[in-house]
Write a sequence for this structure.
């Protein structure tokens, strides 16, 4: 475990296990992914509790706040403090007054509702938030997509130890991967990537997001909200994800393998390899 940081190591738990095969049983120890309740608080009020890997939480808090439309810009987050507790971790944020008032109004409108799935929304308009169309035009070849996915997977250190985490990575316009975030939750991994990129003042329109999961509606929504125009996933998208990608001008690619992929929406950001 010498190749992972102390913060990443905190997301691992050593447990006693029995490894069986047809002929034998072995008692040994194994590393599993830590799963912790994370309470996101804004100006002293708890907004959501998520189950997540307990590291890169500043990135997670910022990315969630931006991708869910709570904040419009990194500058609206004034403070972010991580407070561990016996039952989980509190992420205490101080945000701009205008954003906090909007958040309180939203919470007040949801009080007493019992609907499940999407924050107690009662109508389709409330449940399905549709961002505006993204404008980025950066295109990638099939070879770049395959190489980028392989590079991302090679950088998944927690996945290598636990086999239980998802990843989201940023592929630059030249096809290189230099930013990867992992979490037990696919949404959390993407939020962590968004938070890290925002903190580093990266250009969301000049590259692609790669994910090791299916491309659900929420993954496309978060990408489009941030202006990401290219989303490539290892698994399949859902029908609503495809619909939103078409509406938001997001190039959506699924089933990425070593030499194949499926394009589900907005193929204009895909270019042929020069050798083909």
């Amino acid at each position: 475990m010498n190749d992972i940081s102390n913060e990443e190591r905190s997301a691992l738990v050593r447990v006693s296990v029995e490894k069986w095969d047809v002929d034998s049983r072995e008692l040994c120890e194994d590393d599993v992914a830590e799963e912790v309740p994370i309470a996101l608080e804004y100006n002293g009020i708890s907004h959501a509790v998520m189950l997540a890997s307990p590291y890169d939480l500043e990135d997670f808090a910022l990315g969630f706040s931006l991708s869910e439309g709570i904040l419009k810009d990194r500058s609206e987050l004034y403070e972010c403090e991580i407070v561990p507790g016996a039952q989980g971790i509190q992420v205490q944020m101080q945000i701009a007054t205008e954003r906090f008032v909007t958040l309180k109004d939203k919470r007040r409108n949801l009080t007493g509702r019992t609907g499940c799935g999407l924050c107690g929304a009662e109508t389709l308009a409330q449940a399905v938030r549709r961002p505006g169309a993204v404008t980025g035009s950066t295109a990638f070849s099939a070879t770049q997509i395959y190489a980028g996915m392989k590079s991302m997977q090679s950088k998944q250190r927690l996945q290598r130890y636990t086999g239980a985490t998802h990843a989201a990575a940023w592929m630059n316009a030249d096809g290189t991967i230099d930013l990867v975030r992992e979490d037990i939750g696919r949404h959390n991994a993407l939020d962590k990537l968004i938070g890290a990129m925002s903190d580093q003042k990266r250009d969301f329109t000049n590259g692609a997001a790669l994910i090791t999961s299916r491309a659900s509606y929420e993954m496309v929504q978060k990408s489009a909200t941030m202006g990401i125009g290219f989303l490539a996933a290892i698994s399949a998208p859902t029908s609503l994800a495809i619909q939103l990608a078409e509406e938001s001008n997001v190039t959506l690619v699924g089933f990425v393998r070593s030499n194949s992929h499926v394009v589900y929406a907005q193929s204009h950001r895909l270019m042929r390899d020069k050798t083909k």
